[in-house]
Automatic annotation (TrEMBL):
<feature type="transmembrane region" description="Helical">
    <location>
        <begin position="272"/>
        <end position="295"/>
    </location>
</feature>
<dbReference type="InterPro" id="IPR010293">
    <property type="entry name" value="Sbt_1"/>
</dbReference>
<feature type="transmembrane region" description="Helical">
    <location>
        <begin position="184"/>
        <end position="201"/>
    </location>
</feature>
<feature type="transmembrane region" description="Helical">
    <location>
        <begin position="6"/>
        <end position="25"/>
    </location>
</feature>
<feature type="transmembrane region" description="Helical">
    <location>
        <begin position="302"/>
        <end position="326"/>
    </location>
</feature>
<keyword id="KW-0472">Membrane</keyword>
<feature type="transmembrane region" description="Helical">
    <location>
        <begin position="62"/>
        <end position="82"/>
    </location>
</feature>
<feature type="transmembrane region" description="Helical">
    <location>
        <begin position="37"/>
        <end position="56"/>
    </location>
</feature>
<feature type="transmembrane region" description="Helical">
    <location>
        <begin position="89"/>
        <end position="108"/>
    </location>
</feature>
<feature type="transmembrane region" description="Helical">
    <location>
        <begin position="213"/>
        <end position="230"/>
    </location>
</feature>
<feature type="transmembrane region" description="Helical">
    <location>
        <begin position="242"/>
        <end position="266"/>
    </location>
</feature>
<dbReference type="Pfam" id="PF05982">
    <property type="entry name" value="Sbt_1"/>
</dbReference>
<feature type="transmembrane region" description="Helical">
    <location>
        <begin position="120"/>
        <end position="143"/>
    </location>
</feature>
<keyword id="KW-0812">Transmembrane</keyword>
<protein>
    <submittedName>
        <fullName>Predicted permease</fullName>
    </submittedName>
</protein>
<keyword id="KW-1133">Transmembrane helix</keyword>
Amino acid sequence: MQNLLDPAILFFVFGVFVGLVRSNLEIPPAISKFLSLYLLMAIGLKGGFAMAATGLTYATAAALGAAVLMAFLVPTLGYALLKNRVSRFDAAAVAASYGSVSAVTFVAGTQYLKSIGIDFGGHMMVALVIMESPAIIMAVLLASAARHATAQQSGAMAGGGQRVSAAGVPPLGKILHESFTDGAHLLLLGSLAIGFLSGSAGEAMMKPFSGDLFKGMLAFFLLDMGLMVARNFQQARKAPLVLIGYASLGPVAHASIALGLAWVLGLGLGDTVMLMILSASASYIVVPAVLRYAIPEANPALYFGLSLGITFPINILIGIPLYTFMAQQVMG
């Protein structure tokens, strides 16, 4: 209940309501992009300042290792579950979206933990960055395998149909370059490095920017996200039932796996919750932008609509408090 009464979350709910009643309220695209860039810069600085204060420890290595493992495990499980229920291209695209992460969900999680007094390491911002690309790599490889298998089954390796399908796909190197050099990634990494290098002195200088303004900016951005969720809700409703079920229940399953891994590694409570939130989130910005060209055979309305229309609101409204409660019961 405390999460639902947070002003930022209430602005998200308000945005969904406004969108569903088809009001003409909208956030100009330029402002929306600025808010996104601000949040990435602020959260990167916060993580860098925290890492400068704590240094590199076992907890850092363990948490980042767990993040990398989850980044490969989630899309692998998702693809295995969906490949025989929807087209393999859609299965690869959906698995990549859910194997990757949502920076906004992560930011909302940090604010929730702060509100209830649970600390976590600044290295979890690094986890946010490194969990983005593995799912894209796997999706590209799985889609390539699907194209090859489809061509073999149809006996059309020498025909024009399959060649046309594959011809529109950029080279793997170009796709990976775009995923690693995405502006959001670089801004987050750069801010993290600047925060780490400037340390406590930099934190004091940037406090009005990365501290005092943060909550208000987040509320403004979540209002915009609520409007976007309302616009994409109809797309999500048209998805096959198995995908709707995956979008609704998959995040809890992914968070549970992350919780078990955190328990085995002995992570702290805050790091455990953040790992669960990252594992339960789904990308609706970077991954869809890359997959649009990497897997043109997949339906963008599915992987974008599901992650934004179903999973994102579930995580924002009930998922984050649920994952926190689960971690508290297991980790103490």
